């Protein structure tokens, strides 16, 4: 039985166990590699550009979106989309976890939601991160000094770079799974006997152990690469992810709450400052001085620590393994960081795409539209303060309605465009290749998320 068929059968079992109903986003296409400004123009301009280039040597699709851009990119690196490493996905330990997850069906444990995001294909599927690391590896290439035995010539990357892509996905997945833990008792009652809510206790055990298993395997593979600089770099991204869980105010379930408005007003411009969080030695911790309360800086800090650091340092690490110059390695970090932030801005906009919030729907209270609106209308913070014990006490429909009427959405779109352009700028310095075009198409596809 082929490896791809084994993967498809295994994913089908997981789908059945986790219930049905996830929607798969429609198809899309690639567009040609053009300048950053044209790539990030409005949809109408993109369609005009595609029509004008219809006679080019390579055919161009009429539309583009996330799934098609990712699908085309996978063909370039020659690996399947989600979960690059089937070795750990199909291991006995993970198979047992999948079976135990069935016991949680019908409960409200957040681990089920996390599992659905990881298994179902969709625009929010973070498992494309390994793919991005491989595309960066292929687009930049490697130094002539790299031995032939280290090269996977069919894919155009190094074996160590593929291992790093797997490590990146495992770390990210472990982080998401660990975030599914539920605080079952307040701090004042810590150590006392828990209530009889066995489903929630069981879900916590599965989330803790499965996340630890993935993280342990990632660390083992990282050590196996025997590159001290890379180990230090990726280890610092693990520290950043841990620190992201302790930034700012939080409710008793560790859901983040925005800081009270009061920082310096932010002006998000496409040509604005892009250097926030860029340290001379990016293995050092980031400072939060004069950050909290400033919407753009607070948002950037939260998401660089929680995600951008890992993707940026993984791209940087891929170039370390390729023996590239230090300056090019730094450009790899900048590309990954800006791509992650642009991606997050797109995700933050999604709950505000419709004028009415469906009953029972929630969204991140530290998303960019909310933070920008609080700067515009600080009085809305009184509603958010109701969630200091639990975010369930907050009227999300009221916040949703206010944010839609304010400038937060336009500022978030400008923020997304700014980081997309910054990522494009790095790509435009690379020689033309299929891998570079695929990365540009992924960035362009974000515009339509």
TrEMBL record:
<dbReference type="GO" id="GO:1990234">
    <property type="term" value="C:transferase complex"/>
</dbReference>
<protein>
    <submittedName>
        <fullName>Decaprenyl-diphosphate synthase subunit 2</fullName>
    </submittedName>
</protein>
<dbReference type="InterPro" id="IPR008949">
    <property type="entry name" value="Isoprenoid_synthase_dom_sf"/>
</dbReference>
<dbReference type="GO" id="GO:0006744">
    <property type="term" value="P:ubiquinone biosynthetic process"/>
</dbReference>
<dbReference type="GO" id="GO:0005739">
    <property type="term" value="C:mitochondrion"/>
</dbReference>
<dbReference type="GO" id="GO:0008299">
    <property type="term" value="P:isoprenoid biosynthetic process"/>
</dbReference>
<dbReference type="GO" id="GO:0004659">
    <property type="term" value="F:prenyltransferase activity"/>
</dbReference>
């Amino acid at each position: 039985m082929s490896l791809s068929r084994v993967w498809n059968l295994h994913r089908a079992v997981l789908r059945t166990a986790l219930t049905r109903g996830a929607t798969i986003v429609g198809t899309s296409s690639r567009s040609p590699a053009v300048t950053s400004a044209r790539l990030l123009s409005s949809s109408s301009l993109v369609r005009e550009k595609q029509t004008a280039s219809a006679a080019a040597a390579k055919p161009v699709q009429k539309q583009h979106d996330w799934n098609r851009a990712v699908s085309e990119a996978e063909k370039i690196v020659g690996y399947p989309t989600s979960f690059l490493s089937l070795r750990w996905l199909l291991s006995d330990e993970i198979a047992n976890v999948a079976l135990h997850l069935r016991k949680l069906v019908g409960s409200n444990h957040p681990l089920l939601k996390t599992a659905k995001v990881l298994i179902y294909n969709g625009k929010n599927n973070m498992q494309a991160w390994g793919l991005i690391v491989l595309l960066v590896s292929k687009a930049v290439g490697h130094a002539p000094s790299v031995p032939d035995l280290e090269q996977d010539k069919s894919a155009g990357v190094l074996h160590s770079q593929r291992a790093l892509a797997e490590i990146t996905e495992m770390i990210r997945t472990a982080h998401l799974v660990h975030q599914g833990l539920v605080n079952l008792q307040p701090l004042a009652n810590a150590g006392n006997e828990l209530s009889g809510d066995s489903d929630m206790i069981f879900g916590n055990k599965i989330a803790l152990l499965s996340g630890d298993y993935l993280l342990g395997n990632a660390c083992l593979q990282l050590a196996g690469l025997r590159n001290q600089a890379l180990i230090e770099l990726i280890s610092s991204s693990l520290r950043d992810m841990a620190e992201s869980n302790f930034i700012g105010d939080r409710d008793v379930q560790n859901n983040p709450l925005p800081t009270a408005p009061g920082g310096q007003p932010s002006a998000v411009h496409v040509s604005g400052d892009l250097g926030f969080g860029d340290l001379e030695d990016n293995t050092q911790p980031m400072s939060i001085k004069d950050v909290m309360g400033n919407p753009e800086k607070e948002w950037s800090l939260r998401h660089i620590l929680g995600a951008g650091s890992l993707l940026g340092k993984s791209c940087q690490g891929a170039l370390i393994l390729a023996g590239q110059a230090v300056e090019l390695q730094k450009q790899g970090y900048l590309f990954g960081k800006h791509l992650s932030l642009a991606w997050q801005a797109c995700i933050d906009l999604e709950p505000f795409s419709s004028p009415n919030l469906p009953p029972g729907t929630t969204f991140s209270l530290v998303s960019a539209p909310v933070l920008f609106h609080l700067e515009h209308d600080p009085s809305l913070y009184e509603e958010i303060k109701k969630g200091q014990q639990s975010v369930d006490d907050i009227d999300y429909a009221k916040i949703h309605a206010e944010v839609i009427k304010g400038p937060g959405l336009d500022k978030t779109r400008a923020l997304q465009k700014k980081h997309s352009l910054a990522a494009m700028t790095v790509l435009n310095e690379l020689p033309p290749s299929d891998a570079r075009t695929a990365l540009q198409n992924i960035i362009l596809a974000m515009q339509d998320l």
